Automatic annotation (TrEMBL):
One annotated GO molecular function: transmembrane transporter activity
Major facilitator superfamily (MFS) profile domain span: 1-410
Protein name from the UniProt record: MFS transporter
Taxonomic lineage: Bacteria, Bacillati, Bacillota, Bacilli, Bacillales
Database matches in Pfam families: MFS_3
Membrane topology, from the record: Multi-pass membrane protein
Entry GO CC: plasma membrane
Keywords: Cell membrane, Membrane, Transmembrane, Transmembrane helix, Transport
Keyword Ion transport (UniProt): no
Transmembrane segments: 23-40, 60-80, 87-108, 178-198, 236-256, 268-288, 295-312, 318-338, 359-379, 385-404
Keyword Transmembrane: yes
Location(s) in or outside the cell: Cell membrane
Organism superkingdom: Bacteria
Amino acid sequence: MNMRYAGAAFIDRHFHALTHRNYRYLWLGQCVSLIGTWMQNIGQSWLVLQITGSPFKLGLVGAFQFLPILCFSLFAGIIVDKFPKKNILLVTQTVAMILAFTLAALVLTDTVKYSYILILALLLGLNNTLDLPTRQAFNIEIVGKEDLMNAIALNSTTFNMARIVGPSIGAVMMAMLGAGWCFLLNGISFIAVIYGLLHIKAAPYVRKQRSSEGVMKEIKDGILYIARDPLLAQTVLLVTVIGTLAFNFNVLIPVFTKNALHMGETTYGTLMSCLGIGSFAGALTMSFRSKQGPRIKISIIASLLVAVCLIFNGLSSSVWLCGLLLAITGFFNIVFATNSNSNLQMNAKEEYRARVMSVYSLVFAGSTPIGNLFAGYVADRFGANGAFVSCGILTAILCLLIIWKYKRAASGRASVTEQG
C-alpha cells in the first residue's frame, strides 16, 4: 500500500499531466503508435538507400515529406483555430494509417519503386502539415496551462522511448522479414491512438474569425505578433537553425552506417536507439524540472551544445564512440526542443497560440527539406562525417549570431531606460 501511495506521489510530483484523464488516453495511444512510426522511419530510410544507393535521393525523400509543412504550415494554423482539434486529429491519424498500409502493400508485393515512395512521402507531409500544429495546440486544452510543460516533456519522453524501441524492433524485422513488415505494423499501431482520441472528452477552444479578417491578414498578424515579442522571436529563430541543420539524422545515420562504418541494418538500428536513449533522458530531465517553467537561457545553451556534439559526431570513426555521441546529441536536442516549445506555448496569447505553433511547425519541421537536401548533398560530396561537421559549424555560427543580436538589442533597451 505504501509503495502504491509512493508511486502516486511520484507521478503527481513529476508527471502531473498524467492525472488528467483525457491526456492519459492520448498519451497511452501515442506510446503504441510512435513505436510503429519509428519502425517505419528507419525502414523507409534503409529501403531508399538499398533501392538507390544515393544519400542525395534519401535526402530528397525527407524533403518531399516535409516540403508541404514548409509551404502550407501557416495556413494550417488558421484551420486549426476554426475546428475542434480532436476531430482534426482523428482525420489525420486515419490518413497516416492508410498511407502506412499502402507502403506496406507495395513492399510486400514487391511492386515498390522509388517514385512511389516519393509520392507517399509527399502525401504524409501534407497530412502532417495539419497534424503537427493541431497536436501542439491540443495539449493545453486537455491539461491546462499549469501542466503544459509537463505534458510537452511527457510527449517528448514518449516520442524518444519509441525512438529507442522502434528502431531496435525495426532493425530485427528488416533483417529477418524485410522492411514491409515495419510499415504493416506501423499501420496497425495507429489503432491505439485513434481509440484514445475517441475516448477524449474536452471542451474545444475554437476561435471565431472576425468578418473583416482574411486568411492572409490573419497569417500576417500572427507573424508580426511573434516578431514584436523578443522572447518569441529569438526562440523561433533558434528553432529554425536547429530544425534545419541539427535534425537530419534520418539522412546522415543510415549513410554513416553503410558508407563510413560499413555496417548493416542492426548497427543502424542500434545507432538510432542510442540517439533515442539520449533523447529519452533529456525528456525525463525536462519533465522533472517542468514546474520551474521554460527559460530562454536553456534554449541558448542547449543549441550551442548541440552544435558541438554534431562536430564531434563527424570526427568519430568508431561505432561505440558514435553511439555515445549520438546519445549526448539526443539529450541536448530534446532539452532544446521541449524548452523552446514550452516557451512559445506558455508565452503566446490564447488567440495567437495556434498561429504561433503553426510557425513553430514551419520552422522546426518545415525547414527539414532544406536541411535534408543540404545534408544529403554534402554527404554525397564529402561523406557523412563531412556533413555532420558542416552542420555543426553552421549551427554554431548562426546560433551565436542570433544570441548576439538579441543580447545587443536588450542592452540597447536597458541603456535607453537608464537614460530616461
